[in-house]
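Hi U.,

Before I forget, here's the chain from the pilot set. I'm dumping it here mostly so it's searchable later in email.
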Amino acid sequence: MTRAPLALLVLAACAVEPAPRLDPASDPALARRELLAAAASGPVPIVVVAPDGRPTASEAAALAARGITGLSVRFVPVSPPGEGRRLVLAPWGLRDPATACTGASRPAPIEEARPLLAAWCDGERVIARIEVPAAAERVERERAIWRATARLFPDPYAETYGFELFGLRIAFGARIGF
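Structure:
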């Protein structure tokens, strides 16, 4: 009888998805502020770097927008390299992630699984970059896109609407993730 709870605990631990890795030099708060400014002036450019066209640029744009909470954003696909402020999304990763904002060309067909790369760029400068561990199935790859944008452009709700109590920031809320 005591093995069943232990088995459930082990299964639950195995089911946890690996966390996205935010580049240490990234500034997600600045990326969020810049995205807010870009979204206020119209559709935001997105460059999708995918060797096989899956997901399509329009599908990737919709998935990227889905991950951003507390802000209505419409992404519009543009051709690489793109200029100005834009989101660069490489569902199959890039051999050199440092080239994300410099106009990386579409990678050759990929033999091994690589992490999804998402970067918020201002010209050739990387403001924030994140990698989400590789996913094999289509649904997992789609989920990785909105997980990446959720971490790349975090919702500042708690910092904005919380309140100070004896020097501590207090906020109320709930979060459900899939």
